[in-house]
Amino acid sequence: MKTLRSVIGIIALSAAASSCCNAPSSQADANDMKHLLLATAWFQQSAEMRACYYQSYMLAKMALKENLQNYKGTKPAAVVLDIDETVLDNSPFEAKLMGDRSNYSDSAWMAWSAREEALALPGAADFIAYARELGVEVFFISNRILEERDRTLRNLAAAGMAVDSAHLLLYDLSKKTSCKDERRNAVSATHEIILFIGDNLGDYTSLFDRRDSRLALHLADSLQGDFGRKFIILPNPMYGEWENAIYGHNYSLPMAEKNQMMLDLLRK
Ligand SMILES: [Mg+2]
What we know:
Blueprint: H1 3-8, H2 12-17, H3 34-45, H4 47-70, E1 77-81, E2 88-89, H5 91-99, H6 106-115, E3 119-120, H7 124-133, E4 137-145, H8 149-158, E5 168-171, H9 181-188, E6 192-198, H10 217-222, E7 231-233, H11 241-246, H12 255-265
Helix pairs in contact: 3-4, 3-5, 4-7
The structure holds magnesium ion.
Magnesium ion (MG) binds at residues 9-10, 82, 84-86, 198-200.
C-alpha cells in the first residue's frame, strides 16, 4: 500500500493512482530495504506495537464517550476511521515485497488486497462494537480505490468489523485526488463526526496532505490539543505521507538515494 505509501499512505493504492505516488517497481537491493524490514518487524511482531494499538483504542473509547456526552446537536453522531494500518493489518504485504525484493506497485497491492487476508489490528473490532453500542455510526474513509469495494467489505466482515457499503467511502480515481476532504464533508452533511481515527494525519485534516520541507512538524505542534480528543493517531513506521515528504514527494527515486536523504535529514 503505498499508494498508500505514496501518498500516503497506503494511501494506498490510491496513492498509486493519485497525485501522490509514483512508486517504481524495479528490483530493490536488500541493503536498501533494511529500514522497512525493521519497521515491518516492529509493526507485525513486537508486543510493543500491540500494546500501542490497545492503548490507542482504549483512549479512543474514552474520547468517544466524552465527546458524545458533550454533543448537543441533532444530527446523528459518527466516528470516522481509516482502514489500512488503522483497522486492517497489511504488514504481510510489506513483508512480501521485501521477500520478493520488489518495490511497491499498484498491481502488487491489488494482488494482496484481493486475497482479503488482512487481519484486524488490536483493539479495532472491540472499539467499533463499542461505538455502535453507544449509538455512534461507524464510517470508513479509505484511499483504497472503488474497484476494491467488494473485497474490502468482505475482508472487514471476516475481521469482525462488518459494515455496509453506504458506510464505506473509497477513493474515486476520477477525482484525481486522494484528499479525504470531500468524503469527510459528505459524512458531515448528515452526521456530526465526533472522532477520527487513523495512522496518517491526513486521515484527520488535509493540512497534512502535501507537506513541505518543514514536514508539518509545526502543524502537529499547533494541533496538539486535538490529539487524543478529536483524532486518535496510530503508529505506522512502514510508510506514510511523513516518509513521502522526506523524499520531497519524489517517491520514485532510487531507494539508496532516498535512504541517503533520510540520513542527511536526521539531527546528529
Ligand atoms: Mg492508513
